């Protein structure tokens, strides 16, 4: 920032090297859920409405994990910069523990208060409200099942980014979400005839595969 007319090409190149895999990782995950909405539209209007609301609720709670992941990246990156890999592992472990506690609270809310959560987004005078709430409760139950996977994958990504490891997580994300998640959602939703439930189970499988591989990569590097 001392002289904006004389760019630091080395620094800009380093940012780009680390950043483009992060962008594609985010694109892979976001496009999976966007694609699931297209699949849900093929199921029907009620299913799409319930899916949209349930996905919005799950996205809001996911921000807790994203915030913790960002904190892990910042604090872990400081540790990595001073050559303290052990501290990076400890920081990420603490972030995962906090995320696990948050996941428990979210799971309880999804299982015990589905009508309250779903009802906040649906017009009380809508004649389709009972059907939307009933199906939305099923989707939230599946969302409850993948909270630990959701937390695990995004916290592992935060720790790996702190160590400037972004390309392999990108590959893992693309394989998990588009090699596992989307095909599973289509097969379970339409070939197996499970409809909206099958689509959500497919999303869960993609997230689970992503979380397991990312956790394995992180702890293989930093468990010591």
Descriptive overview:
It is a single chain. With 224 residues, this protein is mostly helical. The mean pLDDT is 95. The chain is 86% helix and 0% strand. It starts with 8 loop residues before the first helix and ends with a helix. α3 packs antiparallel against α5 and α5 (129-145) runs parallel beside α8 (195-222). It has eight helices and no strands.
Q: What does this entry show, briefly?
A:
By secondary structure, this protein is an all-alpha fold. Helix content is 86%, strand content 0%.
What layout of secondary structure does this protein have?
Layout: H1 9-43, H2 45-81, H3 85-112, H4 114-119, H5 129-145, H6 147-162, H7 167-191, H8 195-222
Helix pairs in contact: 1-2, 1-7, 1-8, 2-3, 2-5, 2-6, 3-5, 3-6, 5-8, 6-8, 7-8
Structural class comes to mainly alpha
What is the count of helical runs? 8
Low-confidence stretches: none
Radius of gyration: 19 Å
Percent of residues in helices? over 70%
Overall 3D form: elongated
Tell me about the biggest sheet?
none
Distance between the termini: 39 Å
Beta-strand portion reads under 5%
SSE topology string: HHHHHHHH
Instruction: Output mean pLDDT.
Output: 95
Beta strands, count: 0
Summarize this structure as a short list of keywords or feature phrases.
224 residues; 86% helix; 8 helices; mainly alpha
